[in-house]
């Protein structure tokens, strides 16, 4: 009996040691390269090798309490409002205070727009998220011309009003529903009508299904293997082209 106790103790000791090492690998690799700058990093956790904090992020994202991801940082490191993490395959800094978020969003010189590798690969390197900031602003003005301004919007209001009223009446008869999912479907169909003038229910349903898969892939890690969201998103793009 005591031999099994020794084996179990050794096993648990090895498991704890390996876990301790793995949880610190990212810190050793990335913080060492920063030299003395590493001492000015905010508190936080770089997570597991390669995966980083993505497991806990995606678990919270799919749960009924998505804020639990940030709450875990707050509970461990205090209300600092800024934390280091490892997200989407890159060292990252998470900011949560309104004043800091405002600065990040408004200071175009210090903070350039950026997207995870999965988003760039799926949406395209020459799309809105892959081009320069100046070119992005120019193309945004061109593409938004059809819906910007009172005159342009007033043209689409009757259609939007009809679809919203119809959807609300339908939802009241469905009992308990996942409101966000149905709202996303309604929004997608309105956008499809405005930009593509498509009224085919069959095409709408097919595109909405593949768009959902693409949307999940954009928020995932770029793992091109069956079963992963990124893999499904690549398949969804091909299906959309075939349509």
Automatic annotation (TrEMBL):
UniProt xrefs under InterPro entries: Cyt_P450, Cyt_P450_sf
Gene3D superfamilies for the chain: Cytochrome P450
Keywords: Iron, Metal-binding
A Pfam family assignment: p450
Example of a GO biological process term: sterol metabolic process
Superkingdom of this protein's organism: Eukaryota
UniProt keyword Cell inner membrane, yes or no: no
One term under GO cellular component: endoplasmic reticulum
An annotated Gene Ontology molecular function: ent-kaurenoic acid monooxygenase activity
Family: Belongs to the cytochrome P450 family.
PANTHER family reported in the protein's UniProt record: CYTOCHROME P450 26, ENT-KAURENOIC ACID OXIDASE 2
Protein name per Swiss-Prot or TrEMBL: Ent-kaurenoic acid oxidase 1
Species per Swiss-Prot/TrEMBL record: Hibiscus syriacus (Rose of Sharon)
